Amino acid sequence: MIVTVIGLGLIGGSMAIDLKKRGFAKKIIGVDADNLHAQTALKIGFIDEIADFENGISQADIIILATPVNHATELLPKILDRTENQIVTDVCSTKSNICVAVSTHRKRANYVAGHPMAGTEFSGPWAAVAGLFDGKAGILCDISKSSDHALNIIKSMYETLNLRQVFMESSAHDVHAAYVSHISHITSFALALTVLDKERNDNHIFDLAGGGFRSTVRLAKSSAEMWVPIFEENSQNVIEVLDTYIEKMQLFRDAISKHETSEIRNLILNANKIKRVV
Questions:
Q1: Could you tell me which of 37, 44, 162, 243 has the fewest CB atoms within 10 Å of its CB?
Q2: What is the 3 state secondary structure string of 187-244?
């Protein structure tokens, strides 16, 4: 199986590592608009060769689109235009718009909408690691729109990556992703801004920061190039989640300002119920 990865960052690179290492792909071709990224991926060794857009598509059995979602939405129709029987999938964190972009494409059945829900705060080919997807959820969306052949191949690929396969509609995916992923990043960005605005001496932050702070603010190191398009693509759902989050923050603020210890306790105990699902 020849796999072409378009976008050689954390997710595309990490997929390439395990697909080759675990025997799913006999050859990995890398395509990236950033020549430094492409050359780095080749030097690190998780791709076997660099190709341009046209050649990367023509040589492949499977094409993995691993660019930021705004670019992916533009590129996907162009990729399908150039395919014969190749299977195309993506890794984007929002699904509705990209699925709409190819909803009437004559090669729509060759495309499987995917979102392996794994990552770190780091980006670029330097961040790619083996085993990133082990045990994580791999979302496959709108599967009735994909051919059985394409779906089975991508399911096999997800099995190779040790992803737990979850099936849902693209619109439902975007709602759930806003609640369990996108709000976490916004919260982390906001906390980082709050602390940096107050703590002018960075050394004090490092001296006092414990594990709780470090784990909460970790996501604030994430790439703007990745997250700005995600927030834009999923803005309606993100705004809904933000409104609810702000409402809950206001409950804490009101209770703390009024020294209502029993209300603070109730809020915390209700929040503790998250242990049932996480």
A1: 243
A2: HHHHHHHHHHHHCCCHHHHHHHCCHHHHHHHHHHHCCHHHHHHHHHHCHHHHHHHHHH
pLDDT tens figures, 86-139: 999 999 999 999 999 999 999 999 999 999 999 888 899 999 999 999 999 999
**Confidence (pTM):** 0.89
Q: Encoding tokens for residue 94?
A: 């929002």
Q: How far is CA 45 from CA 56, 63, 118, 193, 244, in A?
A: 17, 19, 21, 37, 45
φ, ψ of residue 51 in degrees (nearest 5): -135, 160
CA–CA distance, 22 with 13 (Å, rounded to integer): 14
Domains of the chain by residue range: 2-168, 173-276
Q: Which residues contact 90 (CB under 8 A, 6 or more apart)?
A: 64, 65, 66, 72, 76, 98, 113, 114, 115
Residue range 199-258, pLDDT digits in tens: 666 666 666 666 677 777 888 999 999 999 999 999 999 999 999 999 999 999 999 999
